Amino acid sequence: MIRLITALLFLLLAGAGCATMNKQQYEQPLYEMDVLEQSNADTLQIQEVSNRELENQKPGERPPLDSDEAGLWMVMDKAEFDYKSAGNRIDDQDLNDYLKDIVCRLAPEYCGDIRVYVLQVPYFNASMAPNGVLLIWSGLLLRVTNEAQLASVIGHEIGHYIRRHSLQRLHDVVNTSGALVFVQLATAVAGVGVAGDLAYLAAISSLQAYSRDQEREADGYGLAFMARAGYEPHEAGDLWEKVIQEVEASKDKNFSLLLFDSHPPGRERMTALDELSDRIVARGNGFSTEAEAFREHLLPLRYKFLQDEMHLRDFDRTEVLLDQLIEDGASLGELFYFKGELYRLRGEEDDLNKALAAYEKARSEAEFPPETLRALGLLYLEKGESVKARSSLQEYLALKPDCVDREMIIYMLSREGQ
Amino acid sequence: MKTLRLAAVIIILPVMIMTSGCATTSHKAVADLSLRENTERILLMLMDIELSELTAGGVLEPNAAWTAAADRFVHQAISEKIASQSRVQVVDLNIGAEQLDAEERKLQTQLIKLHEAVGQTILLHKYIELFKLPNKSGLDWTLGEKAGFLKEKFGADYALFIYLRDSYASAGRVGVILVAAAFGVGMPGGQQVGFASLVDLNTGQVVWFNRLMRAVGDLRNREDAASSIDELLIDFPT
Q1: How many domains does the structure of chain B reveal?
Q2: Range of the domain at B199
Q3: Domain assignment of residue B91, yes or no
Q4: Alpha-carbon distance A170 to A164, whole Å?
Q5: Judging by beta carbons within 10 Å of its beta carbon (0-12, 13-18, 19+), is residue A140 exposed, middle or buried?
Q6: Residue B238 lies in a domain
Q7: pTM for the predicted model, two decimal places
Q8: Which of A178, A317, A407, B77 could form a disulfide with A249 if both were Cys (CB 3.0 to 4.6 A apart)?
Q9: A interface with B, Cβ–Cβ below 8 Å
Q10: What is the pLDDT of residue A16?
């Protein structure tokens, strides 16, 4: 824990970044990687921004041992040691290979430098450490619906890596307001006590946050990598739009804290991403979303991610999320089952009828979780509709003969039979 | 839970620093602890050492070059210290690491992580009066029986876990300290803190524990590193 504190103190962000919108930060990477046409005016702007303090991270480069950057790497190498054996790491080989493939498609130069770790945390987040450790939370995997959206996040994180944003922040902290660090940490921690784990995550994440300008620059890289690799760039803005909808529906303030404390205001970001995507697409063609490949690798894991999401009990937001996923249309039976779960657990007025309707909708799909039938059976029991209850429960046993609650269901059936 | 722990450490750290300079006392599971008679080997677990520079503003900036040097010197000092007082051989886990398969490597990492958590707990409850546990006497903490797999793998009876943090005031920080002192304000400079546990691999029990806490010392050179280890391993069972 002392190590964590040290790391936090060390990684602490000094200022909130400037609030003025700065298009250059978004555009610079796109010119650099030649995926945008530039006008003369743009060229002038580039010269202005390209006077940057730090060189880009080069492929295969390790900082010299006596540098401050090596200190950063050392801390993160140790953290990586912990991630490797973390209890909530998802080490599913297929998933990890797939994510690594996306990294390599986006940035083949850095393919050997970036290591992906997936952690089972039900919030929308990904982060990049200076030593090339890319952390992806399962909540992010639940929310993206195609490979291009996933690539937009991964490309963004690779942008942080290449621009060595952690080192830039270290310099900021040490040079400008180091003395404020303790105060800020104390305040951040003091605000945490109430909301438990999420607040803790939010505090950590805001402490580790990059400045808004860095986020803009990373967004620019994200788009540039996407365009170069042939991903449809508009998916980046679409993803943000979905996330903003969720945040607006959320009753939990920390949910947005995780995202927007440091990141540019959502609307600004969406507009900028969309406008740039228009220009990218106007210039080239053959961009794809790779939705099929994405579904093949991610859908087998989604049931578990949805269960985790339910446990957050932030129902109104989850409803928005489920509607987004339903609109996407993959494995509808599963989604309607969880919609039924949502209403059943929320239990507000008329929710039981809504739950029933959602479960029935799930059952009408070609594939659905067997648990749908159990849920239906129990709800019909509650409503006194014995015939429907019996047939649902019997179907459940037939569909999932080795279910853990088999004896219980048989007992219930025998009681209903009397 | 995590929040609480975080908050606890925020409280503990300053307390630890304030009480630094107190005499070192190690704790033993039993008063007259000695290594079992036929002990041949002690396994030195991967040490968790980190050296940092304390900048003017109070930011701890980890230094990789210092840490690499300290790791070497501490390692050497531990081997020499133990060799000087018994015939027990110190085996380095690094050397035998390739004997471990993926699952065992995971377990070993977990043990090191667990030791940090247990060690912090011992520090809190054995060394800080405010947090003394009324119903827990002696040294009664364990890493669990799973630690036993190391005994089979390495033929060692005990494992030694080391956790060290060392910081040095930068020139700027020294300036701040001097100015503050001129106004009668005491500002902390660099600190050497850490702890060591000896774990019985038959049971997983922590049989000996000590902490290090001082404002002097320097792990970046051989002699001073040896003196720190002398203090950390004071009363180390023979």
Answers
A1: 1
A2: 2-232
A3: yes
A4: 10
A5: buried
A6: no
A7: 0.79
A8: A317
A9: 1-6, 9-10, 12, 65-68, 70-75, 78, 81-82, 84-85, 170, 173-174, 177-182, 185-186, 189, 192-193, 196-197, 199-200
A10: 29
